[in-house]
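Re-running the complex after MR caught last week's input typo. The corrected sequence lines follow. Everything else is unchanged.
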Amino acid sequence: MNKLIRLIPLILFIALGAVLYRGLSLNPQELPSALIDKKMPSFELTQLLNPEVTLTEQDLKGQIVLLNVWGTWCVYCKYEHPYLVDIAKGGRVSLYGLNYKDDRADATQWLSDYENPYIFSIFDDLGKLGIELGVTAAPETFVIDQAGVIRMKHVGPIDAKVWKDKFLPLIEILEKENQGIS
Amino acid sequence: MNRLVIFIASIIFAFNVSAFTSDTYTFDDEVTQIRYNALVKELRCPKCQNQNLADSNSPIAADLRREVYELLQLNKSDGEIVDFMVERYGEFVLYRPKFSALTYILWFGPAILLFIGVVIVMFVLKNSAKKKQPQQLSTAQKNKLEQILKDK
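Corrected-run output:
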């Protein structure tokens, strides 16, 4: 009994060490999104390339929807751009853009200078939809399922590793769910 | 000496200026202004995580300040505004987390640890006090002691 009591400080120390170690290895920028498993918030904004066209959440339709938050002011958006082009060509998902806190002329220029991977981009110059989505910066990417429910939020750029480790497993699950429905 | 005073005063002044954010909102009444100031101090900037909305210069903090202002203009209560932020950015935006199953340990953890500490200290003190107590002699030993003293 006495021996056991003597071991308690050691056990407490190891437990505390484990908790603190885990805390250090987490990325503090990666917040759990409050919107997972909630419906895509409703909005009414114009299309980036066609200011006359008004978009709502009803327009985000496709097989599996990826909504990518981007801006010309965002360095990592340039970094992830080639991967987005690949993803769009892959055809497994419908890729939409959310042009976040940007200038319409700059953004239009950006899309013609580089390739436009998006079916269309929503123009959110005031960041109103960004706030509805809990966006903190760009790039961020949301995965929305057939029913219009947000299933995942990825903060930071997409590259080959992120795509394989984080997006593909979820996409496979969603594809199975879709087959179940149809 | 005079120069030194001016130097120190200018430093203090510079720091004071930097504490103000660039956007200025006009309020209909003083109470709303006070509520606004309290809310932007209470809400954490989701990007620059060790600052509140009032202190941060990041674009998202400016947007959220505008959002707080607009919600106040719509006559929303403080609770509704806080709920609005939590719905979008999670519990994280609150410097003082709400009571929930997830945050019990944050609220009660320190008190529980203090209680455990006090119990351990009391346990240790009691144990050492026990050791210091003079040992009682058995009846046979007492008799023997008396015998020896008598013999002297």
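None of the earlier attempt is carried over here. The beta strands of chain A are 44-47, 54-56, 65-70, 94-100, 121-124, 140-144, 150-155. Chain A is about 40% helix and 20% strand.
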